[in-house]
């Protein structure tokens, strides 16, 4: 027996003093309501309604049990409300890179609370963020995309050992080309091999690695000069010691005291989209406030948008050529 459905029939009939009106109120057929009342009477071992009159009346047993029946239905309704509220307020996991700015993530958490969403930040590599959206374990994520088609872009550059004061560090913002990293002809070979170029986990993405290897080949750099970095702390230690160059963003380099110069090739910069899991909502849209705050956490800026030819310049042409190999 569905106790709640039978109690609803009992309470509705007591309120309406009519089987037909109670059935209309519940949206069920009158014979079904009558069967539920009879089943409930058999369960309690006594009549709940006096049917001998033209208008039915609640019996003494019916009047005695009525407050308890109402209490059960009220508690069931509150239970449903709590369950609905819990579903709406459950933590929504957000996949983010490991090098996000904590203050920006804190702003996103506070904004989520203001918008009625409890966000939970999860630091994950790029491929795991994409798979998390696909399998539904993430609600939203910062997803790596080629920079020319992404909503947000972050310049990448090369971090190296700190430059001593008074040794020409004023050229820190001068862009660097990969051609500058190849050994100079005619220079006497030194005892130390050229430093490797380390890739953080965030840049170990198939399309990006393919672009970087093609660009390195054009610049005359052997593929062996490029290698994936292990833990970020180890890569930073090698970089600060002067035994490696680290491909990273400027905030990441500055945070750890490294010297940084931006890469001249925009096709080797990072591109990001803020995406929602499939089925997250009917449109699959990401709230604008969330996209803006997550982009700021990786120091990304909106890509230039517009009609045909918008934002096309010399750098954009080089980026398209690099992307095509």
UniProtKB/TrEMBL annotation:
Q: Which domain of life is it from?
A: Bacteria
**Residues in HTH lysR-type domain copies:** 1-59
UniProt entry keywords in alphabetical sequence: DNA-binding, Transcription, Transcription regulation
According to the UniProt record, where is the region Disordered?
302-325
- Its family? Belongs to the LysR transcriptional regulatory family.
Name-wise, this protein is Transcriptional regulator
Per the UniProt entry, what species is this protein from, by scientific name? Streptomyces canarius
């Amino acid at each position: 027996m569905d106790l709640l459905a039978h109690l609803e029939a009992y309470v509705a009939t007591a309120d309406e003093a009519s089987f037909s009106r109670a059935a209309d109120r519940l949206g069920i057929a009158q014979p079904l309501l009558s069967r539920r009342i009879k089943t409930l009477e058999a369960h309690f071992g006594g009549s709940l309604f006096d049917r001998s009159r033209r208008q039915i009346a609640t019996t003494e047993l019916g009047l005695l049990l009525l407050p308890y029946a109402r209490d059960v239905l009220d508690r069931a309704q509150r239970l449903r409300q709590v369950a609905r509220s819990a579903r709406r307020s459950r933590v929504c996991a957000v996949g983010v890179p490991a090098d996000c700015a904590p203050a920006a993530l804190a702003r996103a958490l506070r904004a989520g609370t203001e918008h009625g969403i409890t966000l939970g930040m999860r630091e994950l590599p790029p491929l795991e963020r994409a798979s998390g959206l696909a399998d539904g374990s993430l609600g939203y994520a910062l997803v790596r995309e080629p920079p020319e088609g992404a909503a947000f872009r972050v310049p990448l550059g090369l971090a190296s050992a700190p430059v001593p004061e008074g040794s020409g560090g004023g050229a820190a913002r001068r862009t660097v080309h990969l051609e500058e990293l190849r050994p100079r002809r005619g220079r006497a070979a030194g005892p130390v091999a050229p430093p490797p170029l380390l890739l953080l986990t965030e840049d170990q993405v198939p399309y990006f690695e393919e672009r970087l290897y093609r660009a390195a080949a054009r610049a005359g750099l052997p593929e062996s000069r490029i290698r994936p970095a292990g833990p970020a702390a180890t890569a930073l230690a090698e970089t600060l010691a002067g035994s490696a160059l680290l491909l990273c963003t400027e905030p990441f380099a500055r945070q750890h005291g490294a010297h940084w110069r931006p890469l001249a090739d925009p096709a080797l910069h990072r591109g990001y989209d803020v995406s929602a899991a499939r089925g997250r909502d009917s449109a699959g849209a990401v709230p604008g406030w969330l996209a803006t705050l997550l982009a700021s956490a990786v120091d990304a800026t909106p890509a230039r948008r517009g009609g045909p030819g918008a934002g096309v310049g010399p750098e954009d042409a080089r980026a398209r050529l690099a992307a095509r190999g």
